Amino acid sequence: MGERVNAAPVTGRLAPSPTGRMHLGNAYAALAAWLGARAAGGRVLLRIEDIDAPRVVKDADRWIMDDLAWLGLDWDGDAVYQSQRLDAYEEALRRLREMTWDGDALGCDPTRCGEGSAAYPLIYPCFCSRADIRAASAPNEGDGFLIYPGTCRRLPESERRERIARGNRHSWRIAVPDANAPESERVMRFDDRVFGPQRFDLPRQLGDVVVRRSDGLFAYQLAVSVDDLAMGVTQIVRGRDLLRSTAIQLYVRRCLGACGTPEFAHLPLIDAADGRRMAKRLNSLDLGAMRERGDDPRAVVGYCAWLLRLVDEPRPMTPRELLPLFSWEAVAADTADRVADGGSLFR
Questions:
Q1: Are 319 and 35 in contact (CB under 8 A)?
Q2: Is 211 helix (H, G, I), strand (E, B) or coil?
Q3: I want to staple 177 with a disulfide (CB 3.0 to 4.6 A). Which of 84, 181, 269, 322 is the partner?
Q4: pLDDT tens across 62-85, in order?
Q5: Residue 61 CB partners (closer than 8 Å, separation 6+)
Q6: Which pLDDT belongs to residue 132?
Q7: How far apart are CA 121 and CA 99, in angstroms?
Q8: How many whole angstroms separate alpha carbon 194 and alpha carbon 291?
Q9: What is the pLDDT of residues 100-159, one digit of tens each?
Q10: pLDDT at position 142
């Protein structure tokens, strides 16, 4: 088992979104996060990420907690709900709005952003529609991710104020360093326990991202960054599709003055047998359906352990039985995405 030598205790987290019943892919990620913390003698916190209110399903938080308990995945303390932390996000956004970029470095004097100034606000209103952004952008790296072209960053401050006064619908974006800024400012690096060293050039690979949506809701990137800081999270485990998000979250943390970097482990993704990415909207290997048909939770855990490459073949196990077998090296030995076929595997 991989040991943390002379390191502070690990604080991991389970961070489900209550948009439906957990599926096998959620269980696989939750098991990895739980093992990553518990195998190091650390804590596991539970955060219900219900910030996207229109997508929240009534009682899904209760279903999720019940499913986690059914699997044998416990947590320390009470669950934290993002919907109850809006004041914390508001305060973080206020702090960020007091900052400016002069192209090379952050400052804390918003008066520098007047007409004709070379400085621009770290947080600025964006009046572009999704269609506007699609029309002005090209997908990045072939994955369909659109880099915002910075249209509204270039607006004069007087025009921003005029549009807001007219009631024009707008989101708020965080400005990343310019493409000609020093590499130390514009490039975010981190070592991932599964996928190894990562390097993201913020202006070229991410662009200015939304931190508050046009409907007034706080965006995932801001809320998660604030919460992980406030909760003292030191280990973050999630799917590899969020590698890019990690870079922008590290940038938000830096802008908020955070010291230190959490440990990251991004997992290969799980596809259903038909090739589709597992998603709650598709009812992909739904834990509720598994429980209704009488599947053994130990079999589900053992199958997830096999998906994590901790065991050679699926067999019934409890999370605690897996603790002596866990290592990030075992997970990292196979970084290819997995295919899961429910069938009769849990019977």
A1: yes
A2: strand
A3: 181
A4: 999 999 999 999 999 999 999 999
A5: 18, 48, 50, 79, 81
A6: 76
A7: 6
A8: 31
A9: 987 556 666 555 555 555 678 999 999 998 887 777 665 544 455 789 988 999 899 999
A10: 44
